[in-house]
Amino acid sequence: MNCEYFGKCGSCTLGKMSYEEQLDFKIKREKERFGDIFDKTIDVIKSKDGAFRNRAEFRVFHKMGKISYAMSDINKKLLPIQNCSIVSDYISELMPKLLDEVSKNEILAKRFFSVEFLSSTTGDILVTMIYHKKLDDVWSEEAKKLQAKLNIKIIGRSRGQRVILSDDFINEKLYICVPTQESRNEFLVQYKEGGFTQPNQKVNIQMIEWVLNNIEAKDDLCELYCGGGNFTLPLSQKFDKVLATEISKTSIRSAKLNCELNDIKNIKFIRMSSEEFVEARNGVREFRRLQQEDVKLEDYNFSTIFVDPPRAGLDDTTTNLAKDFEQIIYISCNPETLHRDLIELTKTHTIKNFALFDQFAFSGHIECGVVLSVK
Hints:
CATH topology of the largest domain: Rossmann fold
Structural class: alpha/beta
Number of helices: 11
Number of domains: 2
Mean pLDDT: 95
Radius of gyration: 22 Å
Number of strands: 17
Shape: globular
CATH superfamily of the largest domain: Vaccinia Virus protein VP39
Order of helices and strands: HEEEEHHEEHEEEEHEHEHEHHEHEHEE
Distance between the termini: 44 Å
Helix content: 25-40%
CATH class of the largest domain: Alpha Beta
Low-confidence stretches: none
Strand order of the largest sheet: 1-16-17-15-14-11-12-13
Oligomer: single chain
CATH architecture of the largest domain: 3-Layer(aba) Sandwich
């Protein structure tokens, strides 16, 4: 991938390297990091070399009556840009068209501060336009015209305002190879504005398939930090029952909707933090949320726990909970906290499989996947 902003833009910090060079750099770094606890083969899931991000955010730069997109440069100052080589083809094609139309419309251009793009692999696109002004009916009428002309969905945001012109979600289809002939391989999902979505859909699908192909599935699954059900839906095909928890109300609503869209009956989604789930499982507290969803923890025969925590990793309570399960699946967006947690988890469990997922090509970030079994 070539990009005129490599070495300037603060997003692609490894942009001066070729794709293979930046990937080799990250592989070597993580092998050194985890060498004290895992010295076997690490699986590597590659990204596309460019046009891989299905989610992107940009500042809007105004100067002398003209506007452009902008990113933070390597010195954390604004860098005006005209294009971005890492965004999906759908977003890349839309970016200049959107800016051209907005530039010609004083109502849409005035105090336009930043923009967020969310695209599916089938071209469904949601654009969130963020302003430093109150959005009135005049703005809505002009934005509706823009929405119709570009065949996109638009949301307007300002302080205390969220203006939805049509939908606040995109529709996506995930084609997953589930390793059983009788299982489905197409999953319909809705990604909501403001909810978490994996930015690199090609790698996301391979992450899911890697998990499915490297676990021993039996009995029931407990999942913490389930988000909108990205892993939950395919994993439900491999277990008898699934109980999944998430603290975000937006994500739980999405997860339940996605479950309905796929007519999956063996999943229960509960809005709970990991600490609250531990309290419920240990009988420390009773939770009305469990009763409302008709969930009785004693009805579950858990063999496996799946965790996909934020960058801070697992707290001590959740780490101790995970030790009670025969099998642990751990997806991490922060190798540093993953290493810390694995030091503790490998006291009771053995690492069976380890993978690196290059979700964020040309940056220093990389995701990891680990499957552990009880000793």
